[in-house]
């Protein structure tokens, strides 16, 4: 059975506060704290599943069917009565404001965000103790799986596919930022949250961490969410998120695509390399070691295309959010348009940053040596 759903667009910002949902035979209305019903917008045609349907589909939520686990719950593989293969996301602790808000947010998001590179929501289930979301099953799982967790006999992603993923993710993110009103901030973009369909076309998933932003309101968030190594520095230090924090995460994801490596890898310490992938790549580029950057599982690649994507990645991951491009600009630069000028500016700024860091390091070492000398003088004096 199909239902039509309606949400109050203006109450998006109050999802983390107390709300009451009234479910009728064909509509959902969200009541604010004062009980007022505001103007409603259509959520589109979503299927409302019964608890029993999803129990049967997942073999009573068997652990053997778990295909993923995130901050808001587990994801199960399942089969509907018509044999459609689905991914069933069972939210945990929905009474917790974060869990409840995640459910409402994901349903709200799908009503305003429909794009070929965004994961489509099939339907949902609500009971007195459960909140569940149902998505199409992505046969080729995630980009992270294809980069790092392949089983014996499975083929690694080739360069044309990785490049297509870079473009598809950019288009999906650009849609969220520029074509949704209010704009949508993903807040946890990484290889693990880019899923691949039967044809290895990328779709952005896991909107449980996404943030709807009214451009007239502040970007300050009450809690930093995301994955270390992908979180923009200003978001981590101030809690302020914007589309530029997503641009940073996208840049790190590009580095994952090229290298096949994780954003943070402590094993690099054994070789006296940088733990952060971003710093590691900058060092290798300064040393002109492109061959050491590219994933060894790729047998062939186009060096010029790889350089283009690396340059775009570093432009996206600049420390200052104001210096990062918008996603619309990212798409044009991926095509090579306007990239040379931006890259030349980046190289000049990077040279200045390196010089400043070197000077600070020398000053620190000088201060440390001076302290040791002073201690030696004091110890040598007569007592």
UniProtKB/TrEMBL annotation:
Membrane topology recorded in Swiss-Prot or TrEMBL: Single-pass type I membrane protein
Compartment list: Membrane
Binding site for ATP: 89
EC number: 2.7.11.1
GO annotations of cellular component type: membrane
Record domain Protein kinase: where: 61-344
SMART domains documented for this protein: S_TKc (SM00220)
SUPFAM superfamilies named in the record: Protein kinase-like (PK-like) (SSF56112)
Gene Ontology MF terms: ATP binding; protein serine/threonine kinase activity
Catalysed reaction, written as an equation: L-threonyl-[protein] + ATP = O-phospho-L-threonyl-[protein] + ADP + H(+); L-seryl-[protein] + ATP = O-phospho-L-seryl-[protein] + ADP + H(+)
Enzyme class: transferase
Alphabetical keyword list: ATP-binding, Glycoprotein, Kinase, Leucine-rich repeat, Membrane, Nucleotide-binding, Receptor, Repeat, Serine/threonine-protein kinase, Signal, Transferase, Transmembrane, Transmembrane helix
A Pfam cross-reference name: PK_Tyr_Ser-Thr
Superkingdom in the source lineage: Eukaryota
Main location: membrane
InterPro entries recorded: Kinase-like_dom_sf, LRR_Rcpt-Like_S/T_Kinase, Prot_kinase_dom, Protein_kinase_ATP_BS, Ser-Thr/Tyr_kinase_cat_dom, Ser/Thr_kinase_AS
Family statement drawn from the similarity comment of this UniProt entry: Belongs to the protein kinase superfamily. Ser/Thr protein kinase family.
PANTHER family per record: LEUCINE-RICH REPEAT-CONTAINING PROTEIN DDB_G0281931-RELATED
Protein name per the record: non-specific serine/threonine protein kinase
Species: Solanum tuberosum
